[in-house]
Amino acid sequence: MKVLWLFAHPDRRSLSGSLMTEGLRTLDAHGHRHRISDLYAMKWNPVVDAADYAHDPADRLLVGEASERAYHRGHLSPDIRAEQEKLTWADTVIVQFPLWWYGMPALLKGWFDRVFVKGFAFGLTDPATGRPRRYGDGKLTGKRAMVITTAGARAATLGPRGVNGDLNDLLFPLQHGTLWYTGISVVPPLLIPSADRTTPTTYTTAATRLRDRLLTLPTTPPLPFRHQNGPDYDADLLLHPTPNQPEGPAAHYTAPPPPAHP
């Protein structure tokens, strides 16, 4: 594998930092290559603005148009181009972050906002049908990703009946609406629960789970998201009704996803 490890935690001495170190050591030991984007250490700028696109601030900023134009003309900010080069090189993306307020840290959200611009991460059209190529068919098709997240909550509370909601539902905007949207296949996430109560024993268990998931990542079946341009959606991109079809995010899987923490 050629892995881009996208890391968003402010302290490399944390549980998250220790797990990344263990993960990178595992990749090295088995002959995989990797590059790292440690967003806090890089002091990554998460804010989209006109300077990203060499855009005249006196003119109205239409982000989609300006970013696509800058991408094709080679005018994107150098920090954005550097991250796009890493992503182009990689065939696998690890997205690692602590689960803060049911989502990823703002710094990481800003990475996707600035790097996944139109023209680079999306914006293809099928010439035969005129339909946009997205949700399983896009600019980044062929790559795969895995989310690794630590959470203070106990595992059961991030399951289907837990008070915090099911983890796959919490990650749906990232896994489905960002990664799958651009064509990246997403394997089930790795949840490290009870992070604030980690002991040497539970750390050993977490590290073992991480190593196992990394080494089996190339052959792990991805989350069974539906393809936009398959038979499941009509011309208005609405699911065709079927008996007993679930509502909400669950409707967009062809089968129930496996639990994040078995």
Structural notes for this entry:
With 262 residues, the protein is of the alpha/beta class. The protein has a single domain (2-223), classed as Rossmann fold (3-Layer(aba) Sandwich). Helix content is 31%, strand content 12%. The protein is built from 8 helices and 6 strands. Strands 1, 2, 3, 4, 5 and 6 form a 6-stranded parallel β-sheet that branches. The longest helix has 17 residues, at 200-216. The protein is globular, with a radius of gyration of 19 Å. 35% of the residues are buried.
List keywords for this structure.
NAD(P)H dehydrogenase, 8 helices, 262 residues, alpha/beta, Rossmann fold, Flavodoxin_fold, NAD(P)H_dehydrogenase_qn
List the helices and strands and how they pair.
Blueprint: E1 2-7, H1 15-29, E2 33-38, H2 39-42, H3 63-73, H4 78-89, E3 92-98, H5 106-115, E4 144-150, H6 167-170, H7 172-180, E5 185-186, E6 190-192, H8 200-216
Parallel strand pairs: 1-2, 1-3, 3-4, 4-5, 4-6
Helix pairs in contact: 1-8
CATH secondary-structure class: Alpha Beta
Radius of gyration: 19 Å
H/E series: EHEHHHEHEHHEEH
Superfamily at the CATH H level? Flavodoxin domain
Q: How much of the residues is beta strand, in percent?
A: 5-15%
CA-CA gap between termini: 25 Å
Q: Largest sheet, described in full?
A: 6 strands, parallel
CATH architecture: 3-Layer(aba) Sandwich
Number of helices: 8
Class of secondary structure makeup: alpha/beta
